[in-house]
């Protein structure tokens, strides 16, 4: 079968013929139609992820066919029984197991769910990993309530956009930040009340004057800017963060304890989170934002676009045409 393979770190992925997967006793084969990129895939290609074994077929997101039925794949493997935290053996489809950037993938039978009927194949592939991460940050950890004031940082990335869409659908007042005025404008057309460009020197002060303080803030960057999010949080507010692309954070503990803030780390989500997220997407008929679709043969171009941070929404690979 054809697959997009990482053979060496810091080198382009290439399409090549690899053996078809052989399912274990508890697995099934999904014939993949589409797959979607995540930053995790880029980090793997650059050696910035633990446990890399080469060669590997990356990819955690996929939509395809099983026995003539359209499905999406839950990328969780081994979360465990504790809803509060994943087990020590937890991992994500695409490393160390072979992932979705291929014509077929073997997954456990309980990893598939019916493809939401209102979604295209590209939209369906865009949903699983980023949608799950956003859901847990916003609801399971962030405890979002209708009518609350929410700030989503870095809108344009997959998880941030899902958090934004979910919060709007849940009846929150949603504001955004981005380093791109164009992305802020797009978010406003999708229901954001407004936003600020975080590359401007006084962005947090400007936002505070414009909006006031926020009940819930969702962040993926960390770094020096995190202290400004603490200033923007309302008393008894929550800040949920699912990434640290800007590095370590220097925090003022007095501000945190005096404002009674909850600082919440979060990543991925449980199987219950995944089921709740898909149910919410179906109920509200939410459509993932797809930045663009690339044929598998142009997969490396898709990687380069993600690494450059140019996307607004998810980047999708077209693996093959559906049979149904």
CATH level 1 class label of the largest domain: Alpha Beta
Mean pLDDT: 95
Instruction: Count the DSSP helices.
Output: 10
What is the string of helix and strand elements?
EEEHEEEEEEHHEHEHEHEHEHEHEHE
What class do helices, strands and sheet pairing give?
Answer: alpha/beta
Query: Percent range for helical residues?
Result: 25-40%
Tally of domains? 2
Strand content is 25-35%
How far do the termini sit from each other? 20 Å
Pick out the low-confidence regions. none
Report on the biggest sheet: 7 strands, mixed
> Please, what is the CATH homologous superfamily of the largest domain?
Medium-chain alcohol dehydrogenases, catalytic domain
Report the C-alpha radius of gyration, rounded: 19 Å
């Amino acid at each position: 079968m054809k697959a997009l393979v990482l053979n060496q770190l810091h080198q382009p992925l290439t399409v090549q013929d690899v053996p078809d997967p052989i399912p274990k006793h508890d697995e099934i084969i999904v014939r993949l139609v589409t797959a979607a990129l995540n930053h995790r895939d880029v980090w793997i290609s650059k050696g910035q992820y633990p446990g890399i074994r080469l060669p590997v077929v990356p990819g955690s997101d996929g939509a395809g066919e099983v026995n003539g039925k359209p499905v999406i794949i839950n990328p969780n493997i081994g979360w465990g029984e504790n809803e509060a935290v994943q087990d020590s053996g937890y991992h994500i489809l695409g490393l160390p197991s072979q992932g979705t950037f291929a014509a077929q993938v073997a997954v456990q039978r309980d990893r598939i769910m019916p493809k939401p009927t209102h979604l295209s194949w590209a939209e369906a592939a865009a949903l699983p990993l980023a949608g799950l991460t956003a859901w847990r940050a916003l609801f399971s950890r962030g405890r979002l309530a209708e009518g609350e004031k929410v700030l989503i940082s870095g809108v344009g990335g997959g998880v941030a956009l899902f958090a934004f869409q979910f919060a709007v659908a849940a009846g929150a007042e949603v504001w955004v930040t981005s380093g791109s005025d164009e992305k802020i404008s797009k978010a406003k057309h999708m229901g954001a009340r407004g936003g600020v460009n975080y590359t401007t020197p006084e962005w947090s002060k400007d936002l505070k004057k414009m909006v006031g303080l926020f009940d819930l803030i969702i962040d993926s960057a960390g770094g020096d800017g995190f202290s400004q999010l603490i200033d923007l949080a309302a008393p008894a507010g929550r800040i949920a963060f699912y990434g640290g692309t800007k590095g370590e954070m220097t925090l003022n503990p007095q501000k945190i304890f005096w404002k009674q803030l909850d600082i919440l780390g979060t990543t991925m989500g449980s199987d219950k989170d995944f089921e709740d997220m898909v149910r919410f997407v179906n109920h509200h008929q939410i459509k993932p934002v797809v930045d663009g679709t690339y044929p598998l043969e142009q997969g490396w171009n898709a990687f380069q676009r993600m690494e450059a941070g140019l996307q607004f929404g998810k980047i999708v690979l077209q693996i093959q045409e559906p049979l149904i």
